[in-house]
Backbone:
C-alpha cells in the first residue's frame, strides 16, 4: 500500500514538468476563481476541507468521497464590475470502482459596447468562459484518497474563441482520529488547444502547486485551515512600470511577508451542527489591493453555513478594497434524502 501511495506522489511530481509551465498570468485565468462559498469565507483557497459537499471539488478533486453520493451543488458569485460566475456539480458513488462527479463552471462578463476603429458604435457583444469538469476519486487504504479532475475549456470574446484542456491532481490523507486532514494538489496543468485567432502563438496556462491542512479540536467546536498556494511561483509580487519605464515591484522583500503571500488562513466555529460561522484572511489580496491608508477589510472574509435536513446553504462575504465586496452563495442538496 505504501508503494502505491509513493507512486502517486512521484507521478504528481513529474506531471508539472510534462504539462505545466511556471511564470506569470496566462490564458483562462477564470480557472483561479473561487467557486465555493466555504472556501471563499476561509481565505479563498482551502484544499483540505473534508466536508461531503461537491462545491469543494474545484478546490481539490481528492475531496470527492462516497459521502457525496447523490449530492447536487450549485454556486453563484456576484463579482466585481457586473461580472458573475458560478459552478454546479453532481456526485455519484460507483461502489468498488470509486466515486465520480460531473460539473460545469462558467463566467459571464456581461455586455460590451462594440465600435469600429473611428469610434462609431456598431452594437454590442458578450464574453464568457466555460469549463466542463469530470472528477474521479478513489480510496487508497483507510486514510488516503487520490483524485483527478479533467477540465475541457471553451472561451469566447465577440467573434473570437479559444479552447483548452487542464487537469487537477490531488491527494488527501486523514489522521486515524479523523480530526486532521492533509492535502496536496496540482491545479490547472494543461495547455491551450486553439488560439483566439489564427496564426497567434499558444498562451500559457498558470498552474499552481498547493499544500494544505485542516485540524478540528477534539473537545471544542473549532476547526482551523491553512493552504499554501502557488508554491511553484514563489515570487508572486505585482510588478508595475512607472512613467519613466522603470519596473517596480509591490511585493514584500522580507521573509515573513513573502511567506504570508502564499497562505490562505481560515477558522470555523460550529456551536451546533446546524450552523457554522467562518472567518478567513488572504494576505496577498490584502497587500495587492490596499490603496494608501485605506485598508478596511481588504483580504478578510467571513461566512455562514446553515444545514437544514437534506439542504446545506453557505454564504461568504470577501473584502476587495475600494472595488467593493464580493458575495458568494452555495446551495447543496442530498437528493437521496429528498426522495426519501
Residues:
Amino acid at each position: 500500500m505504501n508503494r502505491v501511495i509513493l507512486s502517486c506522489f512521484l507521478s504528481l511530481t513529474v506531471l508539472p514538468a510534462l504539462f505545466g509551465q511556471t511564470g506569470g498570468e496566462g490564458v483562462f485565468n477564470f480557472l483561479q476563481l473561487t467557486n465555493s462559498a466555504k472556501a471563499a469565507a476561509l481565505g479563498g483557497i482551502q484544499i483540505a476541507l473534508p466536508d461531503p459537499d461537491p462545491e469543494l471539488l474545484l478546490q481539490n478533486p481528492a475531496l470527492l468521497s462516497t459521502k457525496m453520493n447523490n449530492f447536487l451543488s450549485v454556486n453563484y458569485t456576484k463579482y466585481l464590475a457586473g461580472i458573475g460566475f458560478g459552478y454546479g456539480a453532481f456526485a455519484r458513488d460507483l461502489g468498488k470502482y470509486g466515486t465520480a462527479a460531473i460539473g460545469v463552471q462558467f463566467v459571464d462578463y456581461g455586455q460590451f459596447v462594440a465600435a469600429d476603429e473611428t469610434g462609431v458604435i456598431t452594437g454590442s457583444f458578450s464574453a464568457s468562459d466555460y469549463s466542463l469538469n469530470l472528477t474521479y476519486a478513489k480510496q487508497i487504504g483507510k486514510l488516503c484518497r487520490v483524485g483527478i479532475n479533467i477540465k475541457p475549456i471553451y472561451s469566447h470574446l465577440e467573434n473570437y474563441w479559444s479552447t483548452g484542456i487542464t487537469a487537477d491532481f490531488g491527494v488527501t490523507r486523514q489522521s486515524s482520529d479523523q480530526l486532521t486532514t492533509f492535502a496536496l494538489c496540482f491545479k490547472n496543468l494543461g495547455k491551450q488547444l486553439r488560439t483566439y485567432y489564427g496564426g497567434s502563438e499558444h498562451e500559457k496556462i498558470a498552474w499552481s502547486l498547493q499544500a494544505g491542512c485542516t485540524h478540528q479540536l477534539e473537545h471544542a467546536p473549532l476547526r482551523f485551515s491553512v493552504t499554501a498556494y502557488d508554491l511553484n511561483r514563489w515570487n508572486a509580487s505585482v510588478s508595475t512600470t512607472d512613467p519613466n519605464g522603470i519596473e517596480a515591484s509591490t511585493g514584500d522583500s522580507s521573509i515573513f511577508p513573502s511567506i504570508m503571500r502564499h497562505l490562505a488562513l481560515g477558522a470555523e466555529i460550529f456551536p451546533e451542527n446546524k450552523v457554522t460561522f467562518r472567518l478567513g484572511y488572504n494576505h496577498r489580496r490584502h497587500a495587492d489591493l490596499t490603496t494608501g491608508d485605506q485598508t478596511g477589510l481588504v483580504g478578510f472574509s467571513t461566512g455562514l453555513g446553515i444545514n437544514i435536513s437534506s439542504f446545506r446553504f453557505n454564504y461568504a462575504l470577501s473584502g476587495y478594497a475600494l472595488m467593493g465586496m464580493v458575495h458568494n452563495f452555495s446551495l447543496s442538496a442530498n437528493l437521496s434524502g429528498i426522495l426519501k
Notes: The chain has five helices and 16 strands. Residues 1-24, 239-249 have pLDDT under 50 and may be disordered. Helices lie at 2-19, 37-41, 255-260, 283-289, 335-339.
